[in-house]
Design brief:
Oligomer: homohexamer
Number of helices of chain A: 8
Strand content of chain A: 5-15%
Radius of gyration of chain A: 19 Å
Helix content of chain A: 25-40%
Chain lengths: 255, 255, 255, 255, 255, 255
């Protein structure tokens, strides 16, 4: 018997699999502020749910989810727990090298948090250089952003931190963790000067061009929300989640 | 509203808590061989379940569980994913320092895997020296061992890797992940020589005294089982789990 | 006397400056394959030239340029010299902390190589968190891409590795280092499968959406060129360089 | 000529040995508080003496002793010099890898300080995994504890930090370093609460079960003594030391 | 076509070279106080100029210059930017290993700063042990010292930090960066005690013997000058520079 | 009572000392080839003996000796055990920071092995910058070299690795560890080429100037001897040792 959850199998069951042809889906999350109304674990919960659903459909295995990512810029918000980027990179290096040691050759990172991407890049490129494995990564919110454009009634067509897309997906997956009466509309604030902050990652606008000016997250947003979550619904969330799931299912099938 | 799962709360909800008096329970697991009949994630699953149950009872918060521990000696068994001890230590250092930064002062590690203990020791002693937090750790299997002695019908009174206690707890918590027809009785093998291996951690007997002689895990056990899981039942598992839960509940209340 | 090149001043001359109000421009480059016709040092040369020109205009100082960046995925091409991302991050951490120790509070990284960006992010966010300095970064090729759209006769409106924009700038700045008879048109190759590589950084297309599938650079491009450099001219290069220079001059003035 | 002290031989003399069949005994010590009446170097002195005596008997070689171990929790006591556990691990990794490079295949750590044990574990497991050497470790005080039970007149049958066993051994080996008029009886103190400290390593009792609650060493003991050294005598020390020596001699002979 | 500057060639041009027989000259500099009249980048500028001149003469390639070295003891002087020695060592390790990967086997470090020497030593010895490359290093100021003895009119026959030799070379290479009216005569100061400081590197005299007593650089020199730059001339500088160049040219030819 | 050996005192005895005015002598050694006739531990033995003798005379304390140094270039010779320079530096950083934590402010490294010097430099400069301690270092063989010039009958006036000075000192201190019938005269070999090796540290002569060309130690010397030990006598050794001891005694008294 093969269970879709990697660590729900015994070592012997793993050993009997056709490991070279079994894709491992590695969910990466974070524990960070996601606005006043969404739980700290949004990125982890969604990445993990997706990985499990897709594994069930495809015969891939969902590996253990990492609940801590690189979110150092949100440390001013209570409850954010961040690894250093160097530490996260080392964790991923050891995680993937163990899988490769066991004969797995196809790894897809299901990444719920943009801050983790470079750690994946670094490890994946090392594997590419040594030709030890074939590695891919999807950033789920970036993908959601691309997929949401034609969702009916979606007010906020582009993804915003703690905005309509993220809130909708959470209302679908974990409505008990969403406190809608703490939700409000807030956009990244920018001072009077000519540099206009665009996101908490450092992106800013100066004279119509995008550059980076790093500012403390607390100066950019009081609530941590950087969009409009008020029109979010579970129905929209279900639609977005299912699109992600379908896409990833096809992706795994073709990987 | 306060949810017992740390990352099910928003940053604002965390920020409104009486953080100095709220205990965080940090589940530590592993992804390693646990015999032919038990899943790789046993340590993580049990530590996480316990932390959640105890958090519900006590008002403590169950922090994100770490599913990778230090299990390097089991790497010969398919599916084992291990961090270096140095890496795990650094992860715990950053995990605890973020919590301390946010004002938490009471941390209890619910440790499902003995190999992780020294990483906790190192970080806890640093916190003690800097007087930044009060830290405790329970090793759940060691505790189960102490608590199981008078369980009726328990054949194996002392805890064995993948033996009756561990198997029983998993039959109670996750029967779907246990493949009893792969279970068998196996004890740590020792060759003809005068050094008798006692466990996969290196403990050995020489002339009646316990010392350490490090051997590859595959030479000590074929199945990964180091005891007798055949008499395990969900009922025994429930009893053990509930004792652990009661004990930890009292512990948190008094911490 | 104040020279625009940071290290052309003596320590005493630096000490006499109004350091809190003097911006340091830090050029970051790379030594990596830039196609068959362009020199390995393109990123360094352009970043350094820009920093110097802008410093002359504004009273900022151009700090020492780092000629090695993070380019590990190009190591299959002769001559590429790459630092590990962790090493580059540590170098930037020490570079900035020394400047901050001396009282400088305004740092702008003039980054000629996209692979370096995360190292800057990490260090800048640490400074933001400790409120020790105000830090910005421009990625010069990304900016060139935004600025080139309406350049007359520019065939390749979007920036390509070793393509028309980069080649033009080099024909303007260092024509002696460009070997146009080695130039040719080549685009990122992708095999027959459904995953279409889009760049050497791992970006790929699957069913119309951008994800990442990491592949060895040599399988993506023979020449290292990923665009069409054949229409490049020094005149276009001058125009692009001057736009970059004007923009940065304004940026520094307003920083 | 072969001298029992590893570093008393020249490189040529070492090179002429049957290295694959020569056991190296590696003494590990510490520099830490050992009560008011015992010197900081107890662990080092005893481990080194044992290694030398056993080497003389067996043809093994006593390698250089490391006088600094991992004792961070005693840093509040004057004179304690501790390495980080990560640093100690790296030192042991390099120490063993040099010996293995030279062809030695049998290493036994004579460990005088429990805090060092995990560093040995880590390195030994790496060697086991790579099958590069056969490694064992004895913790001398744990062994002394096992061996002392039937010593006549020994009041304190179980080993205590700076108690009767340790003091006796030092009275035998280095009476000049023992200041008996500073000796006194003191046991680990525990406050009024329900958690009762059992040792300086973090072990504590809660409701009859052993868990860990980390406390500053200075709150547990004023003198650093955690037992009763007053009945210690050189005669008892000689008996204990000789038992250790005999046991290790047999062990080496059979290794 | 082969350009003498390593990074002025394309990867293809590098790939076509007879790499095993082409020497790479690696200029190492610093950004540190060099007296009140000399620029922070003296070491970098001179090392880089030399490497380029020698490369032109010999067919060797001048690799990218590192402008930051290990100068931590000068951090009290404004503008000094220092790497940790460990960081510099790692940078050199990666720099050389990339070159070796590409087939280069002959590397000569043109080192403008004595503080960098051990980092080169460490990396070079590793290469020697693995027999991966042949490595040499020249410390240019030490060489200048040896070569200057018979220069006519040279008042200061031995090299001093910011003294006549260094100032002369800079007056020859970069007169615009020298502010002679800030030059003055200053020697390393030593207090009343029996230990007489001899240099900023820690060398001191006690009773006629050289030992090391480490002191803050600011207590040793106000201006950073530790000699007499007043008689420096461009003519002397040219003579010294040309001797260095001739010597290195012969060295490369024979390497 | 105060014992001259640091770790022969109890923590309480250390705590009662006038720590700010008590100098700690830290012996640094190595375990490396010292010729065919001298033991691997020469540097450690001599440094430790000196530190103890001087401590007895002066009221200083001899700290624990480190028997492993940085000797990587001798790894080809059986028995050499070397730390990485980075590891040694970290060990010294932790060693000194513990002493400083306990209130010691005067540290003198008695360094028996030139390869360790930079590690001391790095740590000492950090202490100087933070003004946490006053640190000095003597390299004993360099000092012996300076002091031996007028010793009657000394054939080899300058110090050579495993030559007359080192052998004489060992004949005085540890005659049982010297195997004179394995001694022979050997000087650093150099091939036919124009680069003449001068030592195993990389120093070489090219056209009368000293540069560095790194070569494997085994190509430089067969025996590891790089001088003439045949005229060594215990009498000469005693004279040299006593000069070192007197000098250091005066040094400590004045420190």
């Amino acid at each position: 018997m093969k269970r879709h959850q990697f660590s729900a199998n015994s070592w012997q069951e793993v050993g009997e699999m056709d490991r070279a042809n079994t894709t491992i889906l590695i969910p990466l999350g974070s524990t960070e502020q996601e606005g006043t109304h969404l739980p700290l674990g949004v990125d982890t919960f969604v990445a993990e749910s997706l990985a499990h659903e897709v594994a069930k459909e495809t015969g891939a295995l969902a590996g253990p989810a990492l609940p801590l990512g690189y979110s150092e810029w949100f440390l001013e918000f209570s409850g954010t727990i961040s690894l250093k980027l160097e530490t996260l990179t080392q964790v991923l290096r050891e995680y993937t090298s163990c899988l490769i040691r066991h004969g797995f050759r196809k790894l897809i990172f299901i990444n719920g948090h943009a801050g983790n991407s470079t750690a994946v890049d670094v490890v994946a490129r090392e594997c590419t250089l040594s030709q030890s494995a074939r590695i891919a990564m999807v950033e789920i919110w970036k993908l959601a952003n691309l997929m949401a454009a034609d969702i009916p009634d979606l007010k906020e067509k582009s993804f915003k931190h703690a905005g309509e897309i993220m809130t909708s997906v959470m209302l679908y997956l974990h409505p008990d963790m969403v406190t809608m009466d703490r939700a409000r509309v807030e956009y990244v604030k920018s001072g009077q000067g000519p540099f206009k902050a665009k996101s908490s990652l450092g992106f800013a606008d100066f004279k119509g061009m995008e550059i980076k000016v790093y500012e403390g997250a607390k100066t950019l947003t009081e609530s941590g929300i950087m969009g409009d979550p008020l029109s979010a619904t579970a129905q929209k969330g279900e639609m977005i989640f299912n699109r992600l799931k379908s896409y990833l299912t096809e992706m795994v099938t073709n990987f």
